């Protein structure tokens, strides 16, 4: 968080000392950053690992950032209560966190951040690296929307239907519709293809960053890649595309009706792709931390071809850049 706040501070400082921008506005930005920093340090707790990795956009106000931090703290407190209610899950979570920090590293060699997700309503708790595009994520528990899911600790390659830059989920869907490349990634898995499953979701966004479960949100139940047929994949791509508005070249949110707290509402909606593999079952005795690291390392090696596939499929060719509205321009 201090790094992010320093960027807000630097933005105001540059405007103030170079004359670029409004000086009074620059002072206000700097004051807001200082106020938020003081507030954060009073409220934060060393166990809340994800708060420092909330990444504001350049135009994010201090008030908006403060709201997001508040929601993040509330979510983590809910997850913390969930873990305390089931101590064996805390044991599994600790091993998962330690294995992640040892294996899931950024290009500079540092552990990737852990930003929490899940909770009681989802039936699991976990964390992702919060990358703006394809993500690594890991969790422990059984997802409330999935059939016959094994209670285990998982590693995933994840692509949410978020705007990021140019709606990368649309790039993947259109790429796979025109020239499917997943089969090539599956071949690289070899005999491990049966250890990895694919899931397609439909997400409903209650606000900017809160995805809520609802009936019918699974477009494709977990399917082993060794069993996945070309017609199944083609059908999943077509169903996912229908969620997004074709008139916006699929680079915008769709809508879905969801009954929430007894009220039917229209929420923003988007497709969500996930590849997943089991690291270890949630059955005591849990693996020692050294063994957990090895399981995580094996899982990452197994999933790397799928991470590379999603990363390549979400690139927008230089001849098809997007404008500010997310539309492709030639």
Describe the overall structure.
The longest helix has 25 residues, at 289-313. The protein is globular. Mean pLDDT is 77; it is low at 1-22, 40-57 and 318-330. The two termini are 38 Å apart. The chain has helices at 2-18, 23-43, 62-85, 87-103, 168-178, 182-189, 230-243, 289-313; strands at 115-119, 124-128, 135-141, 152-159, 196-207, 210-212, 218-224, 254-260, 263-281, 321-322, 328-329. It has 8 helices and 11 strands. 42% of the residues lie in helices and 23% in strands. The chain is α+β, with helices and mostly antiparallel strands and 330 residues long.
Main beta-sheet strand count, sense and barrel state: 9 strands, antiparallel
- N/C terminus separation: 38 Å
Question: What is the helical fraction, as a range of percent?
Answer: 40-55%
Element pattern in H and E: HHHHEEEEHHEEEHEEHEE
Please state the CA-atom Rg, rounded to the nearest Å: 21 Å
Q: How many individual β-strands?
A: 11
Q: What's the tally of helices?
A: 8
**In terms of structural class, how would the helical and strand content be classed?**
alpha+beta
**Nearest-integer average pLDDT:** 77
Tell me the overall shape. globular
Q: What are the segments in which pLDDT stays under 50 over at least 5 consecutive residues?
A: 1-22, 40-57, 318-330
Q: Give the percentage of residues in beta strands.
A: 15-25%
